[in-house]
Amino acid sequence: MSGNCNAAIGIVGGLRANPLGVVWFDAHGDFKTPETTTSGFFDGMGLATVAGLCWKNLAASVADFAPVPGESILHVGSRDVSEDELANMRQVGVQVCTASEIRSNGVSASLPRHVRNLAECVADVYVHVDLDVINPSDVHANGFSPPEGLSVGTMVEMLRVLKASLQIAGLSIASYDPIWDPESRAAGAVSRFLQVLNER
Predict the structure, then answer these.
(1) Average pLDDT for 10-14
(2) Tell me, what DSSP letter sits at residue 179?
């Protein structure tokens, strides 16, 4: 559990897997850099830092951190991504599976081909889940969650797809603000995610 997405930098260092893949569930790209951001919002640069595009000296100060190549990263569930982020992702080879694609075509027609591509590069993956990837009508986990996200059931289905093809070396759950979740729906969702990953 982490307050924001930049905890991923330490987690990648701590896993020490080489090669390591990253599956990043997030409504946002998190692929801004200091050169492209207009807000200076550090949390919007988390995945770009993991990929080695920015904050290189800062990331290098984290024990055992090594940047993850773009082709070893799969971003899932995006619905609020800027053009400069998409350009950065394309430049380094990040795969993108958007919320719109998943909602329109279903998990089985959207995710498996990306997972197969990832499995050609890596065996072990770190799975990052920013809870704003979920539709706020299901779980309103924070104040940054745009509409038309993924359902909890869809998330469960996708985690099963990942688990069937890849070794999940680590999981992080990020960006939970209980002020936005008075009914504690996020706890139930996270519990379901953990149950899936512990299924035999």
Answers:
(1) 95
(2) G
1 in any annotated domain: no
Residues 6 or more apart whose CB falls under 8 angstroms from that of 182 comprise none
Q: For residue 14, is it within any domain? A: yes
**What's the CA angle centered on 85, arms 190 and 59, to 5 degrees?**
70
**Distance (Å, rounded) from C-alpha 174 to C-alpha 26?**
9
Is 2 inside a domain boundary? no
pLDDT per residue as tens digits for the range 84-137: 999 999 999 999 999 999 999 999 999 999 999 999 999 899 999 999 999 999
Tally of domains in the chain:
1
For residue 48, tell me if it sits in a domain.
yes
Count other C-beta atoms under 10 Å from residue 28's C-beta: 28
pLDDT in tens, 93-107: 999 999 999 999 999
Six token digits for residue 56: 């290189």
Domain that holds residue 84: 7-197
- Per residue in 13-45, pLDDT (tens digit) is 999 877 999 999 999 999 999 898 888 787 778
| Distance in angstroms (rounded) separating the CA atoms of residues 172 and 2 | 7
